[in-house]
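Entry for the shared binder. Reason: the reviewer on the internal report wants the predicted structure included alongside the sequence.
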Amino acid sequence: MSYTKYQGTQKNLTQDSTVTTETWIGSREEMETMAETAVTDESKTARVYQDSGDFWCCEITTTAITGGTPDTGGQIDLPVSLRGGRLPLPLEKAPKYRTQWNHYLFAKKGSTSIPSWWNASRSATDPDPEKYRWGESISDIPGDGWFVLKSPTKPGVTTFEVAVYVVTESIKCNSENTAGNYVRDDFVHLCFDVPGKQGIEFKRGIHVSPHLE
């Protein structure tokens, strides 16, 4: 059985190159095999290291040379970093969540038919408490005279994962005024959507600090 799981992507951009690093986690054997097969040319490198216990990580880095010339208009653009990962959220927050995924449906003896709302219910509120009750575990059974009519359809699943992306952009300015103008002109919106990247939200935070050579 494979334990390989994708952990996230980090992308660093400069004016002449793009470096993308993907991270995977799994068994040592799986990670070493992945590293050996990933390095197909000089643009790729791989690193395998132990995460914790029996879990190992494999980082696959790809470097693409893009070319370009530095900006000399009062500011120096530093690398832009794009980091992607996974964030676990409660199963109940899933867009298509159904109560049946992680709840038992108890029925009072004598009620043997599955209610019409069982398949579409999104709340653990009991619509017909005299005959049916929801419960997260067997111990939630109301008492004598009740039985399990339906078991959870996704037993043991408590979370689901969503993709999370963080963009870090930095510049080095030759004066405080230049830095202030950059903030005023380019950081008009703190939150914006990137065209063509539906569902990915980028947030910008402002921090201006002096730089000493």
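Summary line for the report: The chain is about 10% helix and 40% strand.
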